Amino acid sequence: MAITTPTSSYHTTTRGTKLHYLQTGNQTGPLLLCLHGLGGSTDTFNPLLPYLPSDYSTILVDFPGFGKSPLTASPNTISIANHVADLDDFITSLQGPSQPRGVVIIGHSMGAIVALQYAALRPETVKGLALLGAGRSAAGIPAAKQRMLDLAAAVREKGVAFAADLATKSNFYEPTPERKADPKAQEAVRNAVLAADPEAYARTCEALVDPEHKDPKYELIVAPAVFVAGDKDVISPVERSQGLRESIGGKSWVEVMKSGHQPILEDIEGVKSAINKLFESINST
Question: Where is the AB hydrolase-1 domain positioned along the sequence (predicted)?
Answer without folding.
Answer: 32-266
